[in-house]
What does this fold into?
Amino acid sequence: MAVRGWWRRRREAARSDAGMTTSEYAVGTIAAAGFAAVLYKIVTSGAVSGALESVIGKALDAPF
It folds into this structure.
């Protein structure tokens, strides 16, 4: 019976959450910006850029 009460309290706590707070938005935004910066650096690096150009070049030169 104690487990039922615990689950009921957890459900009520989850329902009463109105959304993210300002600090959670700030942390999420900073994390997304950091991830975007790392991804940009990786994609614009010489090796990845060359590989992407090669793949696109092969795709455009493919016979139909």
